[in-house]
């Protein structure tokens, strides 16, 4: 049969009949997928690297549009870095304070029910950045110190800022990091985040632990028993 094939192939008329019922049993399989939204911040491990990449991308776009003739590989200027920081800040606030931004743009104030932000007296500056108000308007401090930029606690950018502050303060403690950050930024609930990061720093944990003291032996009787001066002498 394997050589000649089935017998109906030799007949002059071949009638092919389709099966009346073709039943296929398919096993139902449930597949679960997890959607992970990777933001711009999560691609970088340091704040300085994030700012530099954004600054170079902005320069490249300006060159493509014919707005700049500077080489794309030239060192960044201070103004380019500051503009890149503002772009990152605005993007972070649009993701974390979307409703607050709409309320500030329409009414100039936010809902009174939001107690955590109401006490900060937030407002929009001339560049559309949310800043914290206060009572230091008449002081001689800089504008950033009087009105720091508001950053959401849960944002990935807040972690980058805390890590950058820890490096800039040479592995400073929590209070030093808070003082450094609040000269420009106001991270909601920053103290708990800073303490958590400080406890997780291997270098700080290694050098902040107290050294164990040696358990000394018993003192000799001549040193603990009252007697005449210089009756017993010793050499160290």
Automatic annotation (TrEMBL):
Listed Gene3D superfamilies: 1.10.340.70
Taxonomy, superkingdom: Eukaryota
Residues in the signal sequence: none
Annotated Integrase zinc-binding domain residues: 160-209
PANTHER family noted in UniProt: PHD-TYPE DOMAIN-CONTAINING PROTEIN, PTHR47331:SF2
Name recorded for this polypeptide: Integrase zinc-binding domain-containing protein
């Amino acid at each position: 049969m394997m050589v000649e094939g089935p017998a109906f192939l030799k007949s002059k008329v071949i009638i092919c009949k389709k099966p009346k019922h073709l039943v296929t049993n398919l096993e139902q399989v449930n597949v679960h997928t997890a959607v992970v939204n990777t933001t711009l911040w999560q691609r970088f491990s340091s704040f300085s690297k994030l700012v530099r990449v954004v600054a170079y991308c902005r320069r490249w776009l300006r060159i493509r549009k014919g707005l700049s003739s500077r080489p794309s590989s030239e060192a960044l200027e201070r103004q380019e870095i500051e503009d890149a920081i503002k772009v990152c800040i605005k993007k972070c606030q649009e993701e974390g304070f979307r409703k607050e931004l709409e309320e500030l743009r329409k009414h100039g104030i936010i809902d009174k029910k939001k107690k955590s932000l109401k006490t900060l007296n937030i407002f929009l500056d001339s560049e559309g950045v949310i800043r914290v108000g206060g009572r230091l308007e008449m002081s001689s401090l800089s504008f950033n110190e009087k009105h720091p930029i508001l950053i959401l606690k849960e944002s990935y950018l807040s972690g980058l800022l805390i890590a950058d502050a820890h490096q800039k303060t040479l592995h400073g403690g929590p209070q030093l990091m808070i003082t450094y950050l609040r000269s420009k930024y106001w991270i909601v609930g920053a103290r708990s985040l800073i303490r958590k990061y400080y406890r997780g720093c291997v270098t700080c944990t290694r050098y902040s632990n107290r050294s164990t003291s040696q358990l000394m032996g018993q003192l000799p009787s001549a040193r603990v028993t009252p007697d005449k001066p210089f009756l017993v002498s010793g050499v160290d």
